[in-house]
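Workshop exercise sheet. Pairs work together: one partner reads the sequence aloud, the other fills in the structure field after running the prediction. Swap roles for the next sheet.
Pair: D.N. / O.F.
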Amino acid sequence: MGLTITEKIIKEHLTDGTAAEEIPAKGRETGLKIDQTLTQDATGTMAYLQFEAMDVSRVKTERSVAYIDHNTLQSGFENADDHRYIQSVANKYGIYFSRPGNGICHQVHLERFGKPGKTLIGSDSHTPTGGGLGMLAIGAGGLDVAVAMAGGAYYINMPQIVNIKLKGKLKSFVSAKDVILEVLRLLSVKGGVGKVMEYTGEGVKTLSVPERATITNMGAELGATSSLFPSDEITREFLKAQGREEDYIPLDADLDAIYDSVVEIDLSELEPMAACPHSPDNVKKIKDIGKIKIDQVCIGSCTNSSLADLLTVAAILKGKTVHPNVDLSIAPGSKQVYQMLAENGALADLIGAGARILESACGPCIGMGQSPKSGGVSLRTFNRNFEGRSGTKDAQVYLLSPETAAVSAINGVLTDPREYGKFPETAQPEKFLINDNMVIKPLDEKEAAKAEIQRGPNIKPFPKNSPLEDSIKAEAILKVGDNITTDHIMPAGAKILPLRSNIPAISEYCFTVCDETFPKRAKEAGGGIIIGGANYGQGSSREHAALAPLYLGIKAVVCKSFARIHKQNLINNGIIPLIFKNPEDYEKVAQGDRLILEGVKEKLQKGEEFVLKNLTTGTETALSGGFSEREKDMILAGGLLNLTRKGN
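Structure field:
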């Protein structure tokens, strides 16, 4: 029996004792050796504090890179202090440091560091962007990344593998963004949970690496563990143009590979689409949405800020003027993209049309500036449109392609880009501009031993948990519905992101999107249990969505189902995630009810069913955990760091 790309990479990276000739059974917890890691500054400070706590003198990976791309708005000392801390840690421990202005982590990693056939985990949920190069790239919590840097394995449940079979070729003004929007329309934001998406078929050969990366990037919105394309001649040509042809290896699924399911998409039948407010899977055709008046257009993010994307945007805008009622901002994805736009004249076309050029960073995608007006309609080439994520709670955010965004910016209304006329063909470079002067190499081991870590006053120790108690008796301190995102649990934005290295301060914003009184009530009650619906914790990999509840005394979260990364972050920090065996039992618990979980330690160790007793109503509810032995040990110890210290 042949192997898929995912199975081939996993087979080469197994660390958990599985025989080399075996592929782990579906759902089995599987340890993987990690070749590369990445962090960004919104999650990196905490990840490196955790790495320091492991008392390891040097990273053990082939390449680890620390990027500064999220918290680049410096309205106080906090962000700058964090950047210096991260740079000093990188210097000392063997980590490459990508300076502010060098670009968004996923775009830069694709250009300069990603390698086909390698494993990559990153403390950012859009790390699967690397799958566009044929990597098994996975988003993870910062603590998992710290463990991998220290030489530990990264654990996943062996995923189901879905074959997204592409045929045909995209028509003019239909782009890779429309491909992944179609996948989201078909499968939903829950459709990829526990799965890896592999793209195959004749249509793959029609897509460039940047186009493939757009698709794998937004695979995160499916809840997928990762998404991959083959590594083929198109991959080789991209790496050659980046001066990295030696990193190329051919990698494809065997002809007789067996997939768990197949989804077929004819690229030639796709039309321009948009994800409507407030979910990436609320997808409709542009022509069906209609010509709604717009207030803002933002082009960029790790999804659509490549040179190819922005050359097309520049060609559409050349000689035109942005509509007087529209504010257009454009953020190139990397310094490489920015400088090449400047040198070939495309940047002048963007400026001439009236675009506001932002720095090469995440910016508006995470609410870091460019918030729309009250009730404003914002068209964005980004990957998420959750309510309030833009920084304006009542904004209406649509996700769409750069082509649709550019044409709409000119017209002042949402416009099917096919109305523009002839598609402006742009030539891709045979060689990219190579200038890595904004990447600082770490000190050698001898010099690193003398280096000191720089810590600003905003950097506080991460909260510590205690071992699991025999019973958990607490109030249902908060009850929320389905598809609660990590933006609901721990919001981002210009006011809150600078507090990422200060858990006591950032916890004051925990769940305030849902209930402004939650932090105060949780502290007064001494903690509690959170009740949630389906797909709880979808979205970003931010482990602050576990750390802030931990600081506020949350002992357990009981839901209909969990998003993969968030569930792992809860376990990593010693908060027990439990699932209603009967989803209808969700209705039996109300906010404010007094609850008790008895015999938790014994039931956890024996793998028995948990029972949630509602002392307010007198009812009992069956719960399941489904934990691996390793996860049980973490929960019993009060989290992964406690377990690691115990092992030492």
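Discussion prompt: The chain has a mean pLDDT of 95. What would you look at next?
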